[in-house]
Design brief:
- By secondary structure, the protein is α/β, with parallel strands linked by helices.
- About 40% of the residues lie in helices and about 15% in strands.
- It has 2 domains: about 1-140, Rossmann fold; about 145-335, Response regulator (Rossmann fold).
- It contains 11 helices and 12 strands.
- The strands form 3 sheets. Strands 2-1-3-4-5 form a 5-stranded parallel β-sheet, sandwiched between helices.
- The radius of gyration is 21 Å and the shape is elongated.
- Residues about 260-275, about 305-340 and about 340-345 have low confidence and may be disordered.
Length: about 350
Amino acid sequence: MRLLCVLYAISRTLGFGAGEAITLGLLIPFGNNGDIGRRIGGAMNLAVEKINQMSSLSAVRDMGYNFNFIFRDSACSAGKGMLSLVELYHNYNVQAFIGAYCDSVCGPGGLLSAELNLPMISYGCTSTEMSDKTTYPMFARTVAPITKASIFVVDILKHFNWTRICILSGEQHLWHLATSSFKKDLEASGIRVKNTYQVGMSEMGSSSTVESALQATREQTRVFLLCLYGNMVDIVMKTAQTLGMLNGDFVFLSLEAELSNHVTTNTNTEGHGGHGDHASHRRKREADLEKLYQSRQKREMTSSNMNMSDGMVPMNMSHGTSSMDMSHDMTTGHTSGRMMVPKDSHLTG
């Protein structure tokens, strides 16, 4: 539905004559980004088909618009992404870009789209730099800037009376900005950031700093904020499992939506998931989080104006999942948040 709204918005703003086809250039990543490329490609195909046929979108058809799209792999690489953008524009004469998913492509791609005077609507880029409308006048997105998540994180920590936290940050520029913003907002709210560790991949494909960071901090705090991409979140959670930290005594808050099946289905420690008291604690925690969401939603709806590009948006809690992602739904104005707590969690703060 989010893509349907994007297509409808494009049809109302491009200003083509009746009967003209609108070709969209879709940038999707393949390779080391989970199955996001496959899923977005399938969603785009369905969205284009529906918007060309649905009776509820008859206004689009009445204006004579007909949508189609061409996709190219951005590889989450600035060089590859720019090459794909140029190919889509030069060879296929696209009228708008859908994507990219990664900030490394959205940055230079947003500059190019401004020069070409073509809309670029991202479904995944969260860098705060993209909110500068002077530099990126043709860029919009269906997700909130990463720093907007700090309000939600503070709310969760205060709600459960968690006053100490450790931040694990990725090496990328986006996570440096996010970590700095989170640390400032957390400390301003009276929450102590015990340590901040930068973790990255070694040449052998594993992290050389995750285990030492978890070991050094586990006695100082039970709450960890993961400012990391999905592959590193996988490593953190697998390392935590090896260290016996998925027994319900620790909480991991992740800002990454694209997590592997290992993280989303195996965060409970064997032998604990079936305990009735642990399940009861988990249900109570989910009910508390739902109340927290309802309270924030009411405040946000009455005090904030929704802005597709970077405005503050109300939070929507998804239960039974294993991460907290900040994806903004254009159709409802909601940003969905997910918190990673071991499924047998009995943590009380």
